[in-house]
Write a structure and sequence with these properties.
- The chain is α/β, with parallel strands linked by helices and 748 residues long.
- It contains 34 helices and twelve strands.
- Strands 1, 2, 3, 4, 5, 6, 9, 10, 11 and 12 form a ten-stranded mixed sheet that branches. It has a two-stranded antiparallel ribbon with strand order 7-8.
- A hairpin with a 3-residue loop joins strand 5 and strand 6.
- The radius of gyration is 29 Å and the shape is globular.
- It starts with a strand and ends with a helix.
Length: 748
């Protein structure tokens, strides 16, 4: 079973809480093996994974009861609500020093968002000298002991639960087998335009390549072979031909590793290993070495690793063989016939065995070429908060989350990650990639609303076009899942959308009757700001109700989990709302707005207070100097007249030589970027030690950022300080005039 928590800001997070609670009551959470999350769903997924990890450590190998899962959901809800009430979006700009640092450096809001998520959701310390120790590393977000094979353990969970339930062991306190849930966080990579995968055992994407935890040590060991002297590499390759091993720089390498890298570097590797002679003659290395999308090679490598283990299960071998052949065909038909001749479509042939090691060695060599020299440290230092922030880095409010490392400078000097919903908002693709046969998708994405008249103007037209594209992606993804179900590739699925038809279980059991306006709930804002208590309760109840209907209909009644689901627990809304439905509807419809929502909520005197406060701020802004000098005000001008030195600083203008220096620096940075100087230098002088140690792409990026920052020398000086203070004041006023009144007016 795979569970996908789609994106949509805090609206999605709250909807997922209600869905998780009903899944726990039906005792289906113990079957979830893959948890795929996007954006707001990633926050819930991270909290749930950490709570589940603690529960497994507390309960040991005995298992977790249904009450334990309900307590896990309770703890996730408490931590989530505490963080939502902090108004994360406004806090991003309520630190003037942080805003100033973002202006004068290459750091963006994404790094600050990771800090806030780590502090207010994941429990890290607010003090800088304690934060690193408290931050959860992504590699530690693994549920279950590392010594136990999670796949082998999860295969026995469904059958074990079925036997115990048949024996009458079903109860809230019964200890039943539970799956080790794997967390997958999805972001979008702007370098490749593909889905960026972040989990405890793998980081990367389809085009650029993936770094696997069980391969990271080997990648770090093979990396020096790409930067060593060519003659030394050829000599080591020849010395390792007979014994099969050679030592370079105190590191032991196999002949296969040395020959593969030498062959891909085209430095005269000599005769290949005997088992690879046929592949060498057919040009396999040229085709796989020039392959741009490393995802095809990764798919073949993963299947080859499984086939190389000689698993006893015939079905597993047949599926792996079919996948291996299919991955090679996707690369090149003729090459697939050379490496894995079609003799049996679903049974691995003896002639394929030589291809397994060849594909794996080429993939490792190519990934080592693309990896940074510090790839192991880069992989180990990825925190869970950084992964969540990258997935929730929604554009255009937040710029791309910038990452230096993982990949070598010549390949990717700076990784740009943005919201996972840009590529695919539901998160279901990760479940399909992990071969889940039962899919549960909690999708609180906004439904496409029709308009009486079309948008006027280019700005609104582009906004409408983006909404149309995102809606099309969502519908195509859902149609793809339905096709997989129709063709029998998956057994069952439940797509729990926030707005759509209300399903009824076929067992005739009771269903909830709520007075909530589902259309108004579905159109609440997708943001990371503070939500009112009525909005919180409405979203949790709505997610609970939708999950109850769809799960009992498609997973229990029509799916394979009827024998193990606890349908005896009747549905009961988790949150209590006022009986004043008119007031609730007014609050929900006002919640669509990001900035004017406090003006749309009764009572009238509170609306008048908000309008009066805004008018007072506008009057004070005009009185302190008007629009022309709004960043200074008369009091600063008076101070400048009394102190000539300060006046000369404020009235500073850049001279001719300064403008020439800044312009030349900027032009040099653009020229270096345009001619791809890092790649040219590395290709021409790749054997020189100074080129190996010099991160040219990163230096180019810093020079370009520095040149933009030096342009702030124009008056008034220093302009970044005025901008930082202005942004800080605007964020504080927004919190006081909009967030606090809205929370007060929407209390239960």
């Amino acid at each position: 079973m795979g569970l996908a928590l789609a994106g949509g800001g805090f609206r999605a997070s709250l909807f997922h809480i209600g869905a998780l609670r009903r899944i726990a009551e039906l005792d289906l959470l113990r079957h979830v093996e893959i948890l795929s999350c996007v954006s707001g769903g990633a926050i819930v997924g991270a909290l749930y994974t950490l709570a589940l990890k603690r529960a497994f450590e507390r309960c040991g190998s005995g298992g977790i009861t249904k009450l334990d899962y309900l307590e896990i959901v309770d703890s996730v809800e408490r931590r989530l609500l505490d963080g939502i009430r902090k108004d994360i979006r406004t806090r991003l700009l309520r630190n003037p020093l942080r805003v100033l640092w973002m202006i004068v450096s290459w750091s963006g809001l994404g790094a600050h968002l990771a800090t806030l998520i780590d502090r207010h959701f994941l429990g890290a310390s607010r003090w800088p000298w304690k934060r690193n120790a408290a931050s959860i590393r992504l590699k530690h977000a693994r549920v279950g002991p590392e010594a136990i094979d999670a796949d082998a353990h999860n295969e026995s969970v469904l059958g074990g639960v079925t036997k115990l339930v048949a024996a009458g062991a079903r109860s809230a306190t019964a200890v039943l087998p539970a799956a080790y849930t794997k967390l997958v966080i999805n972001a979008t990579c702007l370098n490749s335009g593909d889905r960026f995968w972040l989990s405890h055992d793998e980081i990367g994407d389809w085009r650029l390549g993936h770094f696997a935890a069980d391969e990271i040590d080997r990648l770090a060991r093979v990396k020096p072979l790409w930067t060593c002297n060519e003659d030394a590499l050829v000599a080591a390759c020849e010395s390792a031909r007979d014994p099969g091993l050679a030592v370079m720089n105190s590191v032991e390498y196999s002949f296969r590793e040395l020959w593969t890298v030498a062959r891909l570097r085209s430095v005269g590797a000599g005769a290949p290993p005997a088992e690879w002679a046929a592949a060498e003659k057919s040009g396999v290395f040229e085709r796989l070495g020039a392959l741009e999308d490393l995802g095809y090679l990764r798919a073949a490598k993963n299947a080859a690793k499984l086939l190389g283990r000689n698993a006893a299960d015939a079905k597993v071998l047949a599926a792996a063989a079919d996948r291996f052949r299919h991955a090679l065909v996707a690369i090149d038909d003729a090459m697939a016939d050379d490496l894995a001749p079609p003799g049996g479509k679903t049974v691995p042939q003896p002639s394929w065995s030589n291809a397994y090691g060849l594909v794996e060695e080429i993939y490792i060599a190519r990934m080592a070429h693309c990896a940074s020299r510090t790839v192991k440290d880069d992989f180990d230092n990825w925190t869970l908060a950084r992964a969540v922030a990258a997935s929730a880095n929604f554009p255009p409010v937040l710029p791309p989350y910038k990452v230096a490392g993982l990949f070598d400078d010549w390949y990717v000097s700076r990784l740009g990650l943005t919201d996972g919903g840009v590529f695919e908002n539901s998160g279901v693709q990760a479940l399909i990639d992990e071969d889940c046969t039962c899919l549960i998708v909690s999708d609180p994405g906004s439904p496409f609303s029709t308009r009486r008249r079309s948008s006027v103007g280019r700005v609104w037209m582009m906004h409408r076009i983006v909404d149309t594209i995102m809606t099309g992606v969502s519908w195509r993804q859902r149609a793809h899942v339905d096709t997989l179900w129709t063709t029998g590739e998956i057994d069952t699925y439940a797509w729990i959308d926030i707005d759509g038809p209300s399903r009824k279980p076929r067992d005739g059991g009771p269903v909830l009757k709520t007075t909530l306006d589902g259309h108004a709930v579905a159109r609440l804002r997708t943001d990371l700001d503070a939500f009112g208590e009525v909005e919180i309760a409405a979203l949790i109840n709505h997610g609970y109700d939708r999950a109850d209907r769809y799960l009992r209909r498609y997973v229990v009644d029509e799916g394979d989990f009827k024998a193990v689901a606890d349908v005896a627990t009747p549905p009961l809304l988790p949150c209590t709302l006022s009986e004043d439905t008119e007031r609730i509807d007014r609050i929900l419809w006002a919640g669509r707005k990001r900035f004017a929502k406090s003006l749309l909520v009764p009572p009238p005197w509170a609306q008048a207070l908000a309008v009066g406060a805004g008018a007072t701020v506008a009057f004070l802004t005009w009185w302190l100097g008007g629009i022309r000098v709004w960043w200074m005000g008369p009091w600063m001008l008076t101070l400048a007249r009394q102190h000539p030195t300060l006046a000369s600083v404020i009235g500073y203008h850049a001279g001719t030589w300064e403008i020439a220096f800044v312009g030349g620096l900027f032009a040099t940075a653009l020229a270096l970027e345009w001619v791809n100087a890092p790649g040219f230098v590395l290709k021409t002088w790749r054997h020189r030690a100074w080129v190996i140690r010099l991160p040219l792409g990163l230096i180019t990026d810093r020079v370009r950022g520095l040149s933009f920052n030096l342009l702030w020398l124009v008056p008034p000086f220093p302009l970044p300080i005025w901008i930082a203070v202005t942004v800080w004041l605007a964020a504080c006023l927004k919190y006081v005039l909009i967030t606090l009144p809205f929370r007060w007016m929407t209390r239960p």
